[in-house]
Amino acid sequence: MKTLDCALLTLDRRERLVYWPAARLTLDKGRIAQARPLGRKARPGALLAIPGLVDAHCHLPQYPAVAADGGELLPWLKKHIFPLERRFKGSYARELSRLFFKDLAAHGTTAAAVYLSVYKEGAEAAFEEGARSGLRLVMGKVMMDRGSYDDAFARKHPRRGRAEVSLQESGELCARWNGAAEGRLRYAYTPRFALSCSRELMRAAGAEAARRGAFVQTHLSESRAEIAAVRRDFPEARNYADVYGEAGLLGPRTLLAHGIWLSDAERRTVKASGSVLVHCPTSNAFLSSGVMDLPAARGADCRLALGSDVAAGPSLDLLEVMRQAVFAQRLAGAHKLFSGAADRALSRGSAASEVLGAAKAFALATVHGARALDLPVGAGTLTPGAPADLVLVDPAEYDPFAPAPDGTAALARLVFRGSRHAVRATFVAGKLVWGKA
Ligand SMILES: [Zn+2]
Q: How many CB atoms lie under 10 A from the CB of residue 168?
C-alpha cells in the first residue's frame, strides 16, 4: 500500500475532466485503490498526478535518427532509416533498447506500440529489455519480403524465402512474448507497409495474428508518393485500405499509423473493422506528409490514438505531440483545408466544439490510447480500480502561475506549455519505472 498526496488531473472513465488541487491517491497491488480530494484547507499538492501517457506508434531502432532532417517518407527511409535498422543486432540492439525504454518512461510514457527491425535476434533483445523496463509494450519484428535491407538473407537462408522465414520468426517471438511479464508485453505482427510486403505475406500474417490473439501494426496512407506506389503494386485493390482488408489484416487489434489521405470509402472500411487510426502529427509535419483529416475520421467514427512516430517524429514527448495535433487542426480549419464531410463538420463546429482541443488531445494520449492497446480496464484514467500507471509532473516547470484555478486551465497549461522536463516520476502498476533522484 502506498499513499501519494498531490494534485490530480485526469479524465474519468466517461471522459469528464477531474481536477483536484489537493488529492490523496492510494495504490495497492498495482492498482489505484482510492483517489479522493482533500478538504479545502489542505495545502495544494506540489506535484501533479496525471495518467501514464500512451504512445501508440514508434520505432525503437530508428531512435538515433531523430531529427535527421530533409526529405519525404520514401527517400528518408532509404537514406536515414534502413541503414540504422540494419544495425539492430547484438549488444548494440540491447543498449539502444535500454536507452529507448528509459527515455519513454522519462517522458511520462507508460505504454507504447513499438516497431523493431527485421532481425529476430534484435527483437529478442528488445523484448528482454522491455520486460526489465516495467513498461507496457506492444512490439513486433518488422516483416518485409520486398525491398528488405537484410542483404545477408540469401547467404543465411539459401533454400528459404523471406516470407516463410519472417512468418516463422514472428511466430516464435509471439509464442515466447505475447502476454509475458504479467501481461505487460504483447506481440504485434508488424508488416512494415504494403510496399514492403507481398500479398501472401500479409495474408499469412493476418491469419497468424488472429489465430494467436496478437496485435497487427502497420502504416496506412502516409505520403502521396507512397499511395501512388501502392496503386501501382496492387492494381486490383480498390484503394490502400482494401489492400489490408483483403489480406485480413484489419480488426480491433490493428493499429494503423497515419491515415492522412484516406477517402470516405477507406474510412468506412477502417471503421467497420474496428481498427485504430494512430495520428502522428509531429511526424507528418517533419516529413511534409500532410495534415490528417481528423474531422472526417471523427465523422466516420473511427477509433483514434496518438503516436510520436519516432524517428519521423523528432521527439518522444507526447505533450509536444498533443499540442502539435491541436495546432495543425486549428490551422487546417482556418485555411479550410478539408472538404466534403470534413468541411461540414467544421462549419457546424463552434470554438467550443472544435475538432481537437487540449482535452480531446489529452484523451487520445490517455483513455483512447489505452483502449487501442487493450490495456487493463480503467487504464488511461486515475480512477479507483484502474492500473496504477501514472506520472508525477512539477507544474512549476511550465506554469509560473500554478496552481491553476480550474481543471480546464490546468489541462490547457499542461498541454500547451508542458514538456518532458516537468516529469518527476513515472509508475506502471504502482511500481516506479523512472524517477528523478
Ligand atoms: Zn512509423
A: 12
